[in-house]
From TrEMBL:
The keyword Nucleotidyltransferase appears for this protein: no
InterPro entries according to UniProt: Serpin_CS (IPR023795), Serpin_dom (IPR023796), Serpin_fam (IPR000215)
Spans through the membrane: none
Protein name: Serpin domain-containing protein
Family that this chain belongs to: Belongs to the serpin family.
Keyword annotations of the record: Signal
Signal peptide: 1-19
Naturally occurring in which organism (per UniProt): Cotesia typhae
Gene Ontology molecular functions: serine-type endopeptidase inhibitor activity
GO cellular component, one term: extracellular space
Domain of life: Eukaryota
Domain Serpin residues, every copy: 54-474
């Protein structure tokens, strides 16, 4: 098993929608959520490729990261950015649909809901484990300003709190932040900040993720004298796909066991993408595009017996993502001359609580039987049915009526630890399957993870990839 470690409100009109329109709204929901989850997939593949490109030759260190964690931080930056910063941040999954990308606040609402759906689980079935826990916080220099509508949005949509600290007392602040991150990650992430923040720091954004301990389907994964043990999966509990020559890998999906009252299926799956013996992992990564990820995990699944051999391991990565993100085109937010985070802060002139905050509801209209919400022309009608609050950030961005507070990003650190043991899977941040047809029968396949492989942990209903591991040294490595 795997353990992975002040407000003006406008009154609304009553919404009346018939069953046909409810289906149209569901179609829009699915379209928008798929748009966002594909954006996370696209970013994950690009980030892994960039990390791999920056490796020193013969560097076989394992690399694990949380795509959802990093994209979540970038989304918070995107919300507060303008100009080139905004354009660059939009480029990864947030603006490739010309219809839905025109309403920025709406997309953030939907993305926040998607993340919250992972954290809250399926309430109807009372899924308790595994559960993604996130505790987000922005640390702000005493006397520095955070825009009230920005602070309200990230609180209500992304579950962020704002805390004032004194970065001039750098060692005390470092300990304060590290202790909070350690607590928020249930003790899995220790000392993320190795050095005290610069006394020029005005804002530090922290977003720890923790995947509550959960069990996958039964399989032996433990170390005895540094040897692999063997496990066999029941027919109903594993996924296996026959690798095509174009991919050259096997994929095994290990669904997590869940605690429910209605017998619901697991919502979280750990996937192992194991290249064929003659195919390097780097080649699989270059082929494993966003389209491939979705295609192989969602559309080629066949359930049947599979024998898997997996080492018991502890995987850990501490990444400085500054250079990697810049190689992906995220240059403006690191550049003092071009960064513009004017929607996040007004600068030093005011505290973050001294401006009145106006939040309005998007007014909804009655929908008659002749309207077609599936049409791009009627996307705004669909937006209205969601009944999200408007915080005025889109209007402020369009007005250009704000100053650049001269903020830019100086550090981008990311630390992930994943434990793989015979008991559970626990992760904090933070495949190639094979289907073969032989006489119309599926032959059980033996998958031995004794060479580099890719590890993915995905929330099935949303399609969001929570954790991604590029495992180059799959030797048993676990302290007893």
């Amino acid at each position: 098993m795997v353990k992975i470690n002040l407000v003006v409100i406008l009154l609304l009109c009553t919404v009346s929608i018939n069953s046909e329109h409810r289906q149209s709204i569901k179609s829009w929901n699915d379209h928008v959520n798929r748009h966002l989850s594909r954006g996370v997939e696209k970013f994950a593949a690009a980030l892994n490729k960039a990390i791999d490109a920056n490796r020193i030759k013969d560097d076989n260190k394992n690399v694990v990261f949380s795509p959802l964690n990093v994209v979540g931080l970038l989304a918070v930056m995107l919300l507060g950015s303008e100009g080139k910063s905004n354009e660059t941040l939009c480029s990864f999954g947030f603006n490739n649909d010309q219809v839905i990308s025109k309403d920025s606040e709406f997309l953030h609402h939907m993305f926040g809901n998607l993340i919250n759906s992972i954290q809250s689980g399926n309430e109807a079935s009372r899924v308790k484990i595994p559960e993604l826990v996130s505790a987000n916080r922005i640390f702000v220099q005493n006397g520095y300003s955070i825009r009230p509508n920005y602070a309200a949005f990230i609180r209500d949509v992304y579950n962020y709190n704002v805390t004032q600290v004194d970065f001039h007392d750098s060692f005390v602040t470092k300990d304060t932040i590290n202790n909070w991150i350690k607590s928020a990650s249930r003790g899995k992430i220790n000392n993320l900040l190795q050095e005290p923040p610069s006394d020029l720091t005005e804002i530090l954004i922290a977003q720890p993720f923790y995947l509550e301990s959960g069990k996958t389907v039964e399989v032996d994964m433990m170390k005895i004298n540094n040897q692999f043990l063997y496990g066999s999966f029941p027919r109903h509990s594993t996924r296996h796909f026959r690798g095509t020559p174009a991919l050259g890998a096997d994929i095994v999906g290990l669904p997590y066991k869940v605690q429910t009252v209605d017998g619901s299926k697991s919502e979280v799956t750990m996937f192992i993408v194991l290249p064929h013996p003659d195919v390097p992992l780097s080649e699989i990564l270059s082929r494993f595009t966003r389209h491939n990820i979705e295609y192989y995990l969602d559309y080629t699944m066949i359930f049947y017996d599979c024998t898997v051999e997996l080492p018991k391991m502890k995987l850990s990565s501490t990444l400085n993502l500054r250079d990697t993100l810049q190689s992906l085109g995220f240059t403006s937010m690191f550049n003092p001359k071009s960064a513009n985070l004017g929607l996040m802060s007004t600068g030093r002139s005011k505290s973050f609580t001294d401006e009145p905050l106006n939040i309005s509801k998007i007014r909804t209209e009655n929908l008659n039987n002749e309207e077609d919400l599936s049409s791009p022309a009627n996307f705004q009608e669909y937006v209205k049915t969601k009944n999200f609050s408007s915080y005025g950030l889109d209007e402020l961005r369009e007005s250009k009526n704000f100053d650049n507070p001269s903020l830019h990003v100086t550090r981008a650190d990311h630390k992930v630890e994943i434990d793989i043991s015979e008991r559970d899977t626990e992760a904090a941040a933070v495949a190639h399957m094979v289907v073969s047809y032989r006489s119309n029968q599926y032959t059980p396949v033996f998958v031995k993870c004794n060479r580099p492989f890719l590890l993915l942990i995905r929330h099935e209903p949303s399609g969001l990839i929570s954790f991604w591991g590029d495992v180059r040294k799959p030797t048993p490595s676990y302290e007893q």
